[in-house]
Amino acid sequence: MCAHTPQCPTADSPDREAAQVVAAHPEQGWSLLCNALVIFEDTGELLPDNRIVAPHRPLAAATA
After folding, report:
1. Cβ distance 49 to 16 under 8 Å?
2. Full-prediction pTM beyond 0.85?
3. For 5-51, what is each residue's pLDDT tens digit?
4. Which residues on adjacent β-strands are paired with residue 45?
5. What are the pLDDT digits (tens) for 24-36?
6. What per-residue string of b and e applies to 1-30 under the rule 16 or more CB within 10 Å gives b?
7. 40-49 contact pairs (CB < 8 A, 24+)
8. What beta strand segments (E) does the chain contain?
């Protein structure tokens, strides 16, 4: 359970990435959030129930 005020969003919330980081490992490219979500530097995610969210980095703007 989250002890932050205001409480962090759950792993099922659309804004789940807004939860507080509780363990950061930038040298390995991932961080653990308060809601048990593991986020990766390529914007992929691993949910607490082992579902995978594919990377969702925005596409670069097309140049002329």
Report:
1. no
2. no
3. 889 999 999 999 999 999 999 999 999 999 999 999 999 999 999 99
4. 39, 53
5. 999 999 999 999 9
6. ebeeeeebbebeeeebeebeeeeeeeeeeb
7. 45/16, 45/17, 47/11, 48/11, 49/11
8. 21-25, 30-33, 38-40, 45-46, 52-53
